[in-house]
Amino acid sequence: MEKLSKMPNIGGTLEKKLMEAGINTPEDLKKAGSKEAFIKIKFIDNTACYNMLCALEGAIQGIRWHDLSEDTKKDLKLFFSMENLKRDK
Question: In terms of pTM, does the model score above 0.90?
Answer without folding.
Answer: yes
